[in-house]
Amino acid sequence: MITDIEVPEPLSPLPGTNIDTDQGLLQWISSVDHKQLGIMYLLMALFYLLVGGAMALLMRIQLMVPENHFLGAIAYNQLFTMHGTTMIFFVLTPAILGFSVYLTPLMIGANEMAFPRLNAFGLWISFFGGIVLYFSYLAGGAPDTGWFNYAPLNQAQFSKTPGVDYYCIGLLLTGIGTVATAANLIVTVITLRAEGMKYKYLPVFVWMVFINSFLILAAFPSLNAALVMLLIDRQLDGHFFNVNTGGSALLWQHLFWLFGHPEVYIVILPPFGILSEVIQVYSRKPIFGYPFVVGSGIAISLLAFGVWIHHMFATGMGNTVNSFFAASSMLIGIPTGVKIFNWLGTMYGGSIRFTTSMLFATAFLVEFTIGGLSGVSFAIVPIDWQLTDTYYVVAHLHYVFLGGSLFGLFAGLFYWFPKMTGRMIDERLGKWFFWLFVLGFNLTFFVQHILGAIGMPRRVHTYPDLPGFEPLNMISSIGALLMGLSMMPFLYLMYTAFKGGKRAPDNPWDGYTLEWLATSPPQLKSFSNIPPIMSFRPLHDLNHPEIGDHKTTEDDKYGTKDDDVVSGRD
Amino acid sequence: MMTWLVVGTETIFFLALIMGFIYFAYYPGFDPKSVGLLEPVQTGAFTALLLASSLTYWRVEVNFKQGKQKPLRIWLIITLALGATFLAGQLMEYKHLFDQQLVISQGTFATGFFTLTGFHGLHVLIGLICLLVVLCLAFLGDFENSDSSLIQAVGIYWHFVDVVWIIVFALVYILPQFINLHGHVSTP
Description:
The structure holds two protein chains of two kinds. Chain A is mainly α. Chain A has helices at 25-29, 34-62, 73-107, 116-135, 163-191, 204-236, 249-266, 269-283, 290-303, 319-331, 333-347, 356-379, 381-387, 391-421, 427-453, 469-500, 538-543, 554-558; strands at residues 5-6, 529-530. Chain B has six helices and no strands. Chain B has helices at residues 2-25, 32-37, 40-66, 69-99, 108-139, 150-178. The A-B interface holds A 114-115, 179, 183-184, 186-187, 190-191, 217-218, 220-222, 224-226, 228-229, 232-233, 236-240, 244-248, 251, 255, 258 and B 1-2, 5-6, 8-10, 12-13, 15-17, 19-20, 23-24, 28, 104-105, 107-108, 111-112, 115, 119, 184, 186-188.
């Protein structure tokens, strides 16, 4: 059955791939191997996740009781700005890029990315962007203007510390790295697919990465342009966003959200892909409605650019503009709903294994739906006017970023952990981590919906002792501490798995896609040959020839016709 | 293909800058004093040189396809010279404007003008560096009977820089001459 297809290889050896692995750390720093770079992206995301999470805990301690003096206004402003910026640009984005560069070549049966050195460049420039951002603490004060850094607050006369300059330079560097990696991923998918890997056979995750990379290429330049303009304003006395001298504060919002809105889809599309892989493997069923899952991803990416003004309903753009963007924002609910139903359809009737990974995937469905519904409520302009800049927004964005993106990433981490490290995790401890995290997450953010509805503004370092504020804030803070606590079993889990976890077989979950064909962990050269690809579950076809997807009729699949039983459709 | 993707994302970057320029310069109206300092005729001449460099580069690509090494090198040198002259012209213009006290902090028009043309100049510089690399490789004999896509990739970029300049030139130098100048002078 297995007819070998030669995997095309680069004609000349790549630098770095023939270095002895006993070089230790130097091997990692100088690496151009997509698997090592992917792991480093993930480690970078984990590092910044712990830093950003610690900041969130400090903020929640400050907000535990009314009129608290734990941090004070200045430190609090810096903390919420750095927390938001870190989580978006140095946790979620590197994490999705980490999975993308690790898995995309493996899943399409290639041995490397199209441009290995560009890949390394992307990682390191992103990493140093983060260092530059954090250096602002030493240079006189971190940015204190919120992660979206609205004008005119970001102007030199209102933000006197150099924090915003470091924000600009740090994010510019990261932006360049992200764009480079995205272009690299697109070229990889187009040019390096194994023979027989047609577009209709790409794994759903690769499809989402592919779509997502175009989204990155189109969205990040707006941010970079805005950052350049802001730097000119601050360093060269320019007038782009300076309202006093003829500039426009709205221009910043337009440019920022023209990037910022697609960015929230940039960090959710790959988790959608992860979820599609995880749910189908753990349900032992092919994904329900493959063309619809992919198509709705494309629809989301196109709609992403038509909705940015829903962040600006309260700026007085006029009723026509508001109505148009309210309608287009609600449209996003349709392809997202299609995806949710596809996943439910995949799980329906499947024989589900509730591993830690699958638990996170299931929790994703619940939390992301809550986050999506509160998002639709914002698309209704009067409700947005009422709730904008309250904790309701905070609750919504955390439900989609954490309950959506991060849960998806955790699902992916536990799913691919055996592949990446060659070790199995302790499922019992994993479930402890899952329940603690989900409980803490919902405690923290669910009550913030109510807090927002009864009028608590966001971005305030303290609040008066109004009825209801104290108990709800207390519950929220306790939830946050619980989430912080859940990081202990998580880190312990990672540590013990690395040190003494059970050896993982090549394909522990009976996975469907090509990465499970490689050894665990994969060698520097992942494949020497791959099976013929005749469906979007090539490895499943190989391991279960009797029920392979490529077989056209029931007779074929179950051998009920006499002749032509196992020959397939070669 | 990589070049096409890079050009695509650069297009959006320039679109954002151009949008910024239009937003300020056209909506409140131009500052007549600043616009009056620009010299469309002189810049127009340099624009013609830049456009000519696209034509000469097209000759480079044709000669590469035909495998003719000597004309390839000559056309490359001409392209480089034309591009460098354009950049020198831009520097001269900047110096002229600085002498007339038009600097980036002068007002919204100046901010938009220097950002837009400055970033274009930066892209010309990057293009010149790429051309220089291609030239060195050409003299080292890298393009004899080769299927390298380098010349084509640099070409896409160089033509892109040209197209951007046509739009910038029209928006910044030509169009303001035809509309009523009544904008406010912003206080620096």
